[in-house]
Specification:
4 copies of one chain form a homotetramer.
Chain A lengths: L3 E7 L3 H4 L1 H6 L3 H13 L2 E7 L9 H5 L3 E5 L9 H12 L3 E5 L6 H7 L6 E13 L13 E11 L9 E8 L4 E10 L2 E6 L12 H14 L11 E2 L4
Parallel strand pairs in A: 1-2, 1-3, 3-4, 4-9
Antiparallel strand pairs in A: 5-6, 5-7, 7-8, 8-9
Helix pairs in contact in A: 5-6
């Protein structure tokens, strides 16, 4: 299996401002995600956070990243536009992007979708059931029918995104809402997966099925060997 | 507004075999649907049922139908293949098709999707909430955010259909299931809408919001003025 | 037929800097487009250009525009970001947008697609044939099979856009290239059509079939009566 | 790399009725395709033809096939419906299907699309250029920008298929026509690729780039490890 280079990006602010969240994720949300990706095999993992120089996303890091995962929530506005622009450029050139939970409101996701990415929400210990709507999809490898997360934040439709290329999971919540909770988009040579679960106050990223989805997703997002830049510009006839 | 010619097709067997259902729909499910479509204005409505000669779908009827609605359940196998084939041909030539509830298993829907159209189900008085996932879509004209149906049969994912062109509504049910309950497909020059609600033992088709969706859907399904047959076959260069 | 309010936006710089183009479009490209839209009936037309105050796109103008058409080429960078942002917001709230020819590189189109929108090109009097790939689509009303434009600029694939919701036309050019020349996207409550032809040095917008496509497109892009803003934010259970 | 089991199906009648075609493909079209797939590595290849018992597609063969390739032309009507039905069932259960050239009119492709699959055509030594419209797609691995086939049969739009999940290549022909020449669809757990080139009177399947596309396509069509049948039927609440 070829080695896959993943950079796990995390805002990392909740872990600094809340004792409860620091206790839940003592290595940060990024540390938890990095750990289970490493354990999956065939994946080299680095982490980067908002408060690192250049948010940890230097040209060198981006150039050597096959798939970037993105978790952010309380500080989307603190991400520099110039770095968002560089990440977008890398996705269009083939880098995979896995956007997680409240990352729906990140600058990078909004830049790639063109929409507000707004939604309904509620923090009320809803049970979430993620139903599979594309069985056979690589993201569902090793999983069957649905996943139950005992307690999660509710996200509800309308989720203001473009019609996805593929809708892989749809969630229901205790309160009766539904949400397209795993969707894919192609932009340029790159692919994007949005995966909903992962509120900072719940142990969601410790749940095995959630980890399996994310391991599958980063593998699915790996650029193909063919990553030659397309030919544009003024051209003579064939 | 141009006049729209709708044929409401119903299997019509439950109404004959069950006193309860006959009492709920004394003019048949087709009679109920025909009545509210007529009241909507600008629509000429005919009905046809399985036990009519040629199932009520003669060449003359099909040729003068802009949109066909289809409800069937217990007798899909009794629909003649030759008539299914004629309906399919008319859809590909531009006729709109509104497939309702248990019509998901009809021969005509399976012929147009190419899939099994299978799903999970339960008769247990679930509450259904239909959430809108494509606000601004013509099918949602005059409606806002979601519809609640107090009691309905449950249909659950995985719903084995091709990736829809548009997913307009997604339902949740009391038992925690979800379902893509209003979806559209283009096949040839024709468009297809599948709309989930309408179990025979509930008064669903008397609910105003459900009627509004169906009125909107038949208008949306109207063929455009441009209905010239495409040009196929052996052709000289331009 | 309800009245449709269209604003025809044009950069308007070629007409000022080139005598040839000024001679071809003495009222500007916007003047030519506005004239045939007016003649189509049922459409109220205004024009706006880059060099108008606020580019002619004040809050009042945008708020009373159902469909905006956009032609730009040599001065995309001169369009103020704040106005691009307002136009994007209006599209997401339901306004239709018809992007024309070199408008593929406009800030507004790139903001809504999330991609570079780059392509191949050549100015060499290629003949363009636009083949219809979605017969029955409202944009093709009154037209059949294909359109030939005797001389046009060539645009060739790869066209770096997201997978379109619908591909309505594909062009070939004398030099052997192809291009998805009429495509649709939904973003928020609004719809977008990109239509390729219209290089400033050719009389393309005087050709009847091209005019018919654009008349059809603005009608197709009209927002539905249902334009209620979606409900977002913190919500109680149903 | 896991071993991939491909069955190459060919009608095989042209090779029997025409000396020219027998000379061009002395082992049959299936023999040519089987040979280059074998050479690609990691693929176990079998062949099957129309005139074999059960067309070579016994239950045992189908059950042990990961990807089926299909070439047919003059004898689509001789393929037994019962076998078409079994192939369709296997695709819906996860088997990949690569439909080639005049296979567009095969019973199996029409059953899976629901449309007529009709098109324009001409045998006149047109040059075909296949332009890539989804760079980064696995089917394009190792290839860049476009492929030129010196002489081929022309296929022209409108190609009566559902809107593809992905449009990977679009062709132009000397006569000015265009064609969506590599498209993908998902049906059930299976994926389908249609790839246009391969007229029996030209040496198309000997061209290296064409072979590369087909090698990539069968790899892309491999079912994921997750091939558990979806859960359908009467279900209790979660």
């Amino acid at each position: 299996m070829p080695n896959l280079r993943v950079t796990v990006w995390n805002e990392g602010r909740h872990e600094k401002s809340s004792k409860e969240i620091a206790a839940l994720y003592p290595q940060g949300i990024h540390g938890c995600i990095a750990a289970f990706l490493k354990d999956a095999g065939g994946i080299t993992v680095r982490t980067a956070t908002l408060d690192d120089p250049e948010h940890g996303l230097t040209d060198e890091v981006l150039a050597s990243t096959d798939v970037l995962t993105w978790w952010g929530h309380m500080a989307h506005g603190d991400v520099q536009d110039s770095i968002v622009h560089k990440v977008q450029k890398r996705v269009l050139a083939g880098m995979g992007l896995l956007v997680l939970h409240s990352g729906h409101f990140s600058k990078i996701f909004k830049a790639l979708t063109g929409t507000t990415c707004d939604l309904k929400w509620r923090e009320s210990d809803d049970r979430e059931i993620l139903w599979f709507t594309a069985p056979g999809h690589p993201i569902l490898t090793g999983l069957a029918d649905h996943i139950v997360i005992p307690k999660e934040e509710m996200y509800g439709e309308f989720f203001d995104i473009p019609e996805p290329d593929e809708t892989v999971m749809i969630s229901s919540f205790t309160g009766g809402e539904v949400f397209r909770s795993c969707v894919t988009f192609r932009r340029g040579l790159g692919r994007i997966v949005y995966f909903r679960p992962g509120h900072e106050s719940y142990p969601t990223y410790y749940q095995k099925e959630v980890q399996q989805v994310m391991i599958n997703a980063v593998r699915y997002l790996t650029p193909t060997a063919h990553s030659a830049a397309p030919i544009f510009g003024n051209r003579k006839p064939i």
